[in-house]
């Protein structure tokens, strides 16, 4: 880890680096994305185009359409089957949040935390001046 000068941390000091960052494309199937979520134990992805430009974000909630499950704690087999049938043929681009809120690598960490606290978002993709995901 790089220690900040004068006690000021930036997003770049704490962001997920290439070797740990998982991304998907808008054409990735929902089933493929769900497999990666489970395998890597993560809760969402930045969505990038073929040039590495950030085009959206997608979360586990988006992929599972959790709001369509009844409010009960016990989810029945039929509800799970119904959910899985909804993913059939869908791709990440159908469910992602387009044009997400982003930060730069040199953004003050306190400012980034304030953004997260003010919004419902759980992640802030880091992009460069061209809108490409920084990894």
Automatic annotation (TrEMBL):
SUPFAM superfamilies: CBS-domain pair. Signal peptide: none annotated. Gene3D superfamilies: CBS-domain. Transmembrane segments: none annotated. Keywords: CBS domain, Repeat. SMART domains: CBS. It comes from the Eukaryota. Residues 15-75, 96-135 form the CBS domain. This is CBS domain-containing protein.
């Amino acid at each position: 880890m790089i220690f900040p000068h004068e006690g000021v941390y930036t997003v770049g000091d704490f962001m997920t680096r290439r070797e740990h960052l998982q991304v998907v494309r808008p054409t990735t199937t929902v089933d493929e994305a769900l497999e990666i979520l489970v395998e890597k134990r993560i809760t969402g992805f930045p969505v990038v185009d073929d040039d590495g430009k950030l085009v959206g974000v997608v979360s586990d909630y988006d992929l599972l359409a959790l709001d369509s499950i009844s409010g009960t704690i016990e989810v029945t087999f039929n509800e799970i089957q119904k959910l899985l049938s909804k993913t059939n043929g869908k791709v990440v681009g159908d469910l992602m949040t387009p044009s997400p809120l982003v930060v730069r690598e040199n953004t003050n960490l306190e400012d980034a935390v304030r953004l997260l606290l003010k919004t419902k978002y759980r992640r802030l993709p880091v992009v460069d001046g061209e809108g490409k995901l920084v990894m």
